Every structure is written in structure tokens, then in C-alpha cells.
Amino acid sequence: MSNRHLARTISLQTLFEWDVKGNDPQKIDDIINYNFKAFAPEFDDHSFTEKLVKGVIKNLEEIDTYIKKFAPEWPIEQITTVDRNILRIGIFELIFDQNIPAKVAINEAIEIGKTFGGESSGKFINGVLGSIFKSFGPLKKTEDKEMGKPEEKKPDEEK
Q: Is the distance from CB of 102 to CB of 94 less than 8 angstroms?
């Protein structure tokens, strides 16, 4: 397992626990530290996990707006906690982290969904993240700009 994949997995475990325990931002550092000790005691690159988790929390309201827009048949509180947090990580990487290629963000989210989610999680995650990518085109990321699609729009803008 690559370091980044492991970091994403720990991020999912952390956000899952944080979500289940009531979304208290004051507890996030303790949850992250516990998960490193419990699931990856030998893992020494904590910065990527912390960037993902804290980035999701910082942008949670906007990230959840994307979920509501691109999965309208699924009220956010009815999406399983695992799938909801995989989507949050995927959307953070897709929209907010300019250093992660869009295809990597989408593929990693799908793979984590297949591993930790239910039978249809991978397809659901692919559908939501794929729709976001198609809707927004290049997300100011190098490999996306090379595709020649239109510039990014915010989730509340009309098509």
C-alpha cells in the first residue's frame, strides 16, 4: 500500500470517527493521533493525513454543498457515514487541493469506497465525483487544463 493511500485510509477512519462522535473540531487532533497509533504505528508521514482531515473540516460546509447538488436523490444524512466521508475527502482533493490530479482524487476515492464501503459504494462515489468533474471541467490543475475544458464554476452557479 502506498503512503498516500494509507494516509487517505487513516483520513477516512478519522473523519468517520469524528462524524459519528458529533463533529467536534476540538477533538480532531486526538482522533488523528489515536488512529496513527492504532492503525499505522510505523507510518511516519502524518502531514498528508492532517492536510486532508483538516482541509475537509475547514471546507465542510462547501464540500457538503457539492454532495447535495451532485447526489440530490440522497439527503446527506442518509448517505452512509463511510460513503459520506469518502466523498468529502474526494471532493476536497478534487476541488480544493490543486496538487492532486483530478483522476487520482477520483480513482483513490473509488478504491477506498470499494474497500470500506458497501457493495455499490464504488459506483456511487464514481458517479458523484465524475459528475462534479464533468460539470466543472479543469479544476486549475495542470493535467486538467491540458484537456481544454472550460474553467471552474462554483456549486451554486447555474449551468
A: yes
Quick: pLDDT tens for 29-81. Answer: 999 999 998 888 888 778 999 999 999 999 999 999 999 999 999 999 999 99
**What is the Cα–Cα distance from 7 to 45, expressed in whole angstroms?**
8
Of 90, 51, 97, 99, give the one whose Cα is nearest residue 70. 90
SS (H, E, C) 14-70: HHHHHHHCCCCHHHHHHHHHHHHHHHCCCCCCCHHHHHHHHHHHHCHHHHHHHHHHH
Q: How far apart are the first and last CA of the chain?
A: 39
How far apart CA 64 and CA 128 sit, in angstroms, is 12
* Distance of alpha carbon 83 from alpha carbon 64, whole angstroms: 12
- The mean pLDDT value for 145-152 works out to 43
- What is the reported pLDDT for 26? 84
Question: 16: Cβ–Cβ under 8 A, 6 or more apart, which residues?
Answer: 81, 82, 85
Q: What is the pLDDT of residue 23?
A: 84
CA separation for the pair 14, 37 (Å, rounded): 12
Rg, C-alpha atoms of the chain: 15
